[in-house]
Amino acid sequence: MSIKYQITLIGVLLSALIIPIWVTEIPPLVDLPNHAARIHILANYETVPFFKEVFAVTYAPIPNMAMDLVMVPITNAVGIWNASRIFLTLTVILFVLGCFLISSYKENTFSYGPFLAPFLIYGGTFFYGYLNYVFSVSMFLITLGLWLRWRKKLTHLRIACLCIITFGVYLSHLSSIAFLAMAITIINVYDLVELDPSEKRSKTDLMKDMVIFIAPAVAFLSFIEGSGSGTVGTLAWNSLSGKIVGLASPFRSYDLWADIITVLSVLITFILLKIKRTLEFDPRLLLVASLFLLTYIFAPERFFTNDADIRIVLPAFVLLILALRPIVRSKAILGIILVPLLLLTVRQGAIVYRWVEMGNQFNSEKRLLSEVRGNNTIYPIFGKGLVEHLEKKQRPLLHIINMAAIEKGTISPNLFAIKGQNPLIFRSPMPYASLDAIDKNEWMTYIAEYDYVLTFGTSPEVEVIVSRKATLVDSTEKMKLWEVKK
Q: What CA–CA distance (Å, rounded) separates 479 from 104?
């Protein structure tokens, strides 16, 4: 493919991936308002006494700080939502760059993969707002790509560069440093049994690979003994149906049929290329992707965090696509491989439409927060089963309460400020219990300790109880704001 065509495709790719981020005031990613509230508090911590009273700040080697490290320094200069969009844009650009670095580690080879694989970033983990994790996957791809290009000649400068970037992978999110170690180990084992002498690496080279993991290993041990909990938490495995749903996560957006059509077009394209004998495979990437997927099947769902197993699915499918290399010998072959790219771009347009729709609903509901006085506390009450059964397009509303921290300096107990997970932590835990708590009356006793209550999807019976302790201030289609009687 000519340079002209490649530049055009790169332009289309970046435009399709970045435009959705900038068309809405607040990208409607589920956890984003919660993350943004934490970043806002960190950025204004020294100037707001109320924040100092409620929170402590501890910057330790926590492997979950991508947003904190990137966004806090720029938030006061550009605003929290511009900082959020800049972070998301950087995540996308790094993701694309990582795909191209991996696909081009062999000289004089063309791969269709880096034009296709980056679209997987718009999948389940991204839409749910697992943004530190997604950023870390971008960093993982870049680090693996550089290592693949440099592994036969690891100079001191290159080792130093890899050490710095690998430490960045660790600080972004713990999962991706594990992916990087797995990928490098798998490729090294493959090369050890590879019959081609030119692919052999010396013991010295293998020792150099270990050097780049020294800083993350030391930091993790320090984290476990100090800021962390010192345990891996409760181990739990997902069900078969849960595993199947998780396997589809990189391909799911908001419109099921659009996703199915797009995935089928990609599969049919690769099948046609295979039939026409114009498809090659990169054995290293294919092996890594296959073992990643095998790991997903047997990995626990809970391990340090929830959804632990699903984290490996995104890099697995990205590497799988990057492992497939079509040989473009004619315009007909070029036409075949452009069809999925066109459909994926259309799918991005559908995501933009949904985001605008979701953004309008989000703005409509958050007007309640204008009635809240600053530097207070607010208690969220969600209807029974609401969190589990709320449709994807409405899930961002679950964190709308945290907009009060940004707009009014008002704090809620579900803010992401957890020891061992974030640099911002509550000095004292705020009392909270859901309607599903074992003690059905527990939540009633906590309301009096707050200034406001926000109800979402609650039954009339629950609202009658709330009305005894608080006065209704305002309501929207889905939520009600109450001020606690003092």
A: 51
Question: For 427-486, what is each residue's pLDDT tens digit?
Answer: 998 999 988 876 778 888 899 999 999 999 999 999 999 999 999 999 998 999 999 998
Residue 86: is its pLDDT beyond 90?
yes
User: Quick count: other Cβ atoms within 10 Å of Cβ 331?
Assistant: 8
Residue ranges of alpha helices (H) inside 173-255 are 174-193, 203-211, 214-225, 240-247
Structure confidence by residue, pLDDT tens digits, 250-259: 999 999 888 9
Give dist(CA 73, CA 96) in Å, integer. Answer: 24
* CA dist., res. 334 & res. 355, Å (int): 32
Residue with tokens 């006061």: 76
Tell me the DSSP string of 92-142: HHHHHHHHHHHHTSSTT---SHHHHGGGGGSSHHHHTT-HHHHHHHHHHHH
Task: Give the mean model confidence (pLDDT) for residues 309-331.
Answer: 86
CB contact burial 422-461 (16+ within 10 A = b; e otherwise) = bbbbeeeebebbebeeeeeeebeebbeebbbbbbbbbeee
In the predicted structure, residue 272 carries a pLDDT above the cut 50:
yes
Q: Is the pLDDT of residue 233 over 80?
A: no
436 φ/ψ sector (left φ>0, alpha ψ -120 to 50, else beta): alpha
Are the C-beta atoms of 273 and 362 separated by less than 8 Å?
no
Pick from 381, 483, 359, 372: nearest CA to 432:
381
CB 452 within 8 Å of CB 410: yes
Cβ neighbors of 338 (< 8 A, separation 6 or more) are none
Structural tokens at position 82: 């511009």
**Single-letter code of the amino acid located at 150:** W
CB atoms closer than 10 angstroms to residue 82? 14
What's the CA gap between 100 and 110, in Å, rounded? 10
Separation between Cα atoms, residue 62 and residue 422, nearest integer Å = 7
Count Cα atoms within 13 angstroms, Cβ side, for 57.
Answer: 15
CB atoms within 10 A of CB 286: 16
Q: How many CA atoms lie within 13 A of 12 on its CB side?
A: 18
- What's residue 195's pLDDT? 65
Do the Cβ atoms of 14 and 90 come closer than 8 Å?
no
Confidence of residue 54 (pLDDT cuts 50, 70, 90): very high
- The more confident residue out of 416 and 387 is 416
Contact between 179 and 315 under an 8 Å Cβ cutoff? The reply is: yes
Token code pair at residue 313: 């699915």
- Please give the distance of CA 421 from its chain centroid, rounded to a whole number: 15
